[in-house]
């Protein structure tokens, strides 16, 4: 059905204005519509329903998703979302993944088991209660003289000393720091899943970032799309567009050239800029 629509669109584009000098295939709006139809057709691959087994989207591995017939870029988005600290609380949360159509979700939803997120929630509550019970009474201003730590240097052991952070959140924060390539701003702590406003306030009081903090950067002229897409601020499609631009125009002369790529919006550019090199 999608293929039929595609053929009709191509035919319509060729025959609608046969007398005009400018080809309809040069019209950006027409090309964009064709691109959307191709995209819809690409994502319509049916799942291998007989191969699917009960799974938790918070723990399922990439190979299993591919074996069941899921598109590689959807499986990659799921793994990357988890690596950035995201969690699937309800089965409907899978619909938020780019490329997750209703038909794919309906095929997967009967097999979804969210036991791990329930276990994790109980563990977090237990850790908070345990820390609260063991925390001795201290005067209101007792912590004001404690030296602040560098956010890019502290380890998970130190982070567990912060009220409200247990082993799960401390490891998640360190893991997200590694994915980013280092924190560039304290505001990025808001991107770590599970940090409450109180915990964020505590971290802001006890941590800082060096003005010249070292950041691990991605070289736009060397890395492949998988490495680029592994960064929390880059999607699979944006990474593919960067590689395509490089192949067409040659090596990047500056990071600012990313602004020439349609899929790189201003928000993505500003967030990713500190982590890119050429």
Give structural notes.
There is one protein chain. The protein is an all-alpha fold. It has 4 domains: 2-42, no CATH class; 49-113, DNA polymerase, domain 1 (Orthogonal Bundle), CATH 1.10.150; 133-208, Orthogonal Bundle (DNA polymerase, domain 1), CATH 1.10.150; 218-277, Tex RuvX-like domain-like (DNA polymerase, domain 1), CATH 1.10.150.310. It has helices at residues 2-15, 28-42, 62-67, 72-83, 102-108, 115-134, 156-159, 167-180, 197-206, 225-229, 236-249, 266-272; strands spanning 149-150, 207-208, 218-219, 276-277. It has a two-stranded parallel ribbon. A two-stranded parallel sheet has the order 3-4.
Q: Round the Cα radius of gyration to an integer and report it.
A: 24 Å
Order of helices and strands: HHHHHHEHHHEEHHHE
Q: Strand arrangement, largest sheet?
A: 1-2
State which percent range the strand residues make up: under 5%
**Would you give the CATH topology of the largest domain?**
DNA polymerase, domain 1
The level 1 CATH classification of the largest domain is: Mainly Alpha
Number of helices: 12
Layout of secondary structure:
Layout: H1 2-15, H2 28-42, H3 62-67, H4 72-83, H5 102-108, H6 115-134, E1 149-150, H7 156-159, H8 167-180, H9 197-206, E2 207-208, E3 218-219, H10 225-229, H11 236-249, H12 266-272, E4 276-277
Helix pairs in contact: 1-2
Entry summary:
This protein has 278 residues and is mainly alpha-helical.
